[in-house]
């Protein structure tokens, strides 16, 4: 894993601290206390003129990016992981994996895939040897097998 980016929107009706908690819950425990190190924020105006904060968390240190991505994959429920694998062709492009994690579920401590809009978007930039979907599938399966042996 070369890098990992998590991004989400904080709408005017949402509590920013709760959204930060949701993102924090997606990451390994040792990284949760230092979210600000990875954070950039930008405020934009929505269609109706409402303020929307765009939060991006960029992890460009390979070891930390790998650890965070492994954590996400290992904590997925089996049904979500199987859906992830089944839809990999749609989620993998130009050496990147795209995933959407349900923001409300993340706040509760769960990692669930969502196709909706109220999500934490995860973009993983893979190493060059992981550029074909078959190799990526094997890689993801190897991460899950580590889960059962830990």
Structural class: alpha+beta
CATH superfamily: Ribosomal protein L5
What is the strand content? 25-35%
Domains counted in the coordinates: how many? Answer: 1
DSSP E strands, number: 6
What Rg do the Cα atoms give? 15 Å
Q: How many distinct helices? A: 8
Low-confidence regions: none
> What does the overall shape look like?
globular
At the third CATH level, what is the topology name? 50s Ribosomal Protein L5, Chain: A
Organism: Thermofilum pendens (strain DSM 2475 / Hrk 5)
Protein name: Exosome protein
InterPro entries: PAB1135-like, Ribosomal_uL5_dom_sf
Please tell me about this protein's structure.
The chain is α+β, with helices and mostly antiparallel strands. 45% of the residues lie in helices and 27% in strands. The protein has helices at 16-26, 29-32, 35-38, 62-75, 78-86, 88-91, 103-107, 133-149, and strands spanning 3-11, 39-45, 51-59, 92-93, 96-102, 119-125. Helix 4 (62-75) packs across helix 8. The radius of gyration is 15 Å and the shape is globular. The two termini are 21 Å apart. The model has no long low-confidence stretch (mean pLDDT 92). It comes from Thermofilum pendens (strain DSM 2475 / Hrk 5). This is Exosome protein.
Keywords:
8 helices, single chain, 150 residues, 6-stranded antiparallel sheet, alpha+beta, 50s Ribosomal Protein L5, Chain: A, globular, 45% helix
Q: What is the fold's blueprint, element by element?
A:
Layout: E1 3-11, H1 16-26, H2 29-32, H3 35-38, E2 39-45, E3 51-59, H4 62-75, H5 78-86, H6 88-91, E4 92-93, E5 96-102, H7 103-107, E6 119-125, H8 133-149
Antiparallel strand pairs: 1-3, 1-6, 2-3, 4-5, 5-6
Helix pairs in contact: 4-8
Pfam families: RNA_binding (PF01877)
InterPro entries: PAB1135-like, Ribosomal_uL5_dom_sf
Protein name: Exosome protein
